[in-house]
Write a structure and sequence with these properties.
The chain has helices at residues 43-61, 77-95, 106-114, 121-131, 140-158; strands spanning 3-9, 15-23, 26-35, 65-69, 101-104. It is α/β, with parallel strands linked by helices. It has a single domain (3-158), classed as Ribonuclease H-like superfamily/Ribonuclease H (Nucleotidyltransferase, domain 5), CATH 3.30.420.10. It has a 5-stranded mixed beta sheet. Helix 3 (106-114) packs across helix 5 (140-158) and helix 4 crosses helix 5 (140-158).
């Protein structure tokens, strides 16, 4: 059975997203990109853009599950709060389409992808290229979203999922 996964790297300036299919050990790149709300817009308008674009991505690609990175607390509490708002807009867009959302801390994502919880960016990029050679991310946010989706596919194999009747 194939599972379609939407990976999201949330951010108010750049929200990366990626869609991949997984069936057992096989993974297939479907699409990815970055949502870029204009910085001159009001906060509410930028959050609405993230919500609307992720809603459209869900409608276009029909993911079965979504994985999203849990934010870490920044030194600047205002930055953490703003990032949390962008993350919330993304989660609500996906959950509004009745798609289960799985949240992972950055070190869990790194460990699921590379085997090391403190892997550096180059190790993550290398694994993405090995596992999804068809993916050619243009930005770091897009690459991170692909890594988040891939990590979730690895987690699918080790965390049993309850059966869902549709």
């Amino acid at each position: 059975m194939t599972t379609r996964v939407l990976g999201i790297d949330p951010g108010l300036l750049h929200t990366g997203w990626a869609v991949i299919d997984t069936a057992g050990q096989t993974r297939k790149y479907i699409a990815s990109g970055v949502i870029l709300p204009k910085t001159k817009l009001e906060m509410s308008e930028r959050l609405a853009i993230i919500f609307r674009e992720l809603t459209q991505i869900c409608e276009t690609f029909s993911p079965d599950e979504c994985s999203i990175e849990i934010i870490f607390v920044n030194k600047n509490p205002k930055t953490t709060l703003i990032l949390g708002q962008a993350r919330a807009a993304a989660i609500v867009a996906v959950a509004n389409k009745n798609i289960p959302v799985f949240e992972y801390e950055p070190n869990v994502i790194k460990k699921a992808l590379t085997g090391a919880g403190h892997a550096d960016k180059s190790a993550i990029d290398k694994m993405v290229k090995i596992l999804l050679p068809a993916a050619h991310p243009k930005t770091a946010d897009e690459a991170d979203a692909i890594a988040i989706a891939l990590s979730h596919t690895n987690m699918l194999r080790v965390i049993p999922r309850p059966s869902i009747d549709h």
